[in-house]
Write a structure and sequence with these properties.
Distance between the termini: 14 Å
Number of strands: 5
Length: about 140
């Protein structure tokens, strides 16, 4: 079974029904819900989602949304080793570096799914868009 780290942008596409990306993000989460893939998020991602969503839907609904998210996705930790790896990497985007190294350090992640492919050029793990990944699984 594929182990998939899903990036913040794809999760927000799904939760906020952001067009034109919602359809592929929903299909990705549907695969996880049907237990056809194992879905992972980094703990940093949850913090970012909380920060952005609470401004739109408030604290209570954001907490409920995060609880639903972690019902279908496992959470990868961000520790000192992950942060140091990110700081010392050649990634241009620190947040994406943390996402990447949380995947490297915490499990045998097969693919990172994001809309932001350009910032993952240094990735040791294959990187795909939700659309490409869903097409591969069908």
């Amino acid at each position: 079974m594929y182990k998939v780290l899903v990036d913040t942008d794809v999760i927000l596409d799904f939760i906020t029904k952001r067009e034109p990306f919602n359809n592929e993000a929903a299909k990705l989460f549907n695969l996880a819900d049907k237990r056809q893939i194992d879905l992972y998020v980094s703990s940093l991602c949850l913090n970012n989602i909380y920060y952005l969503l609470r401004k739109i839907i408030g604290h209570k609904k954001t907490i409920e949304t995060l609880q639903k998210l972690i019902d279908i996705a496992d959470v990868l930790s961000v520790d000192k080793k992950v942060v140091l790896s990110a700081l010392n990497s050649k990634f241009n985007d620190f947040e994406d570096a943390i996402q990447h190294f949380s995947a490297v350090e915490n499990g045998d992640i097969d693919v990172i799914v994001t809309r932001n492919l350009k910032d993952y050029k240094q990735s040791k793990i294959p990187v795909m868009t939700a659309k490409s990944f869903v097409s591969l699984k069908n």
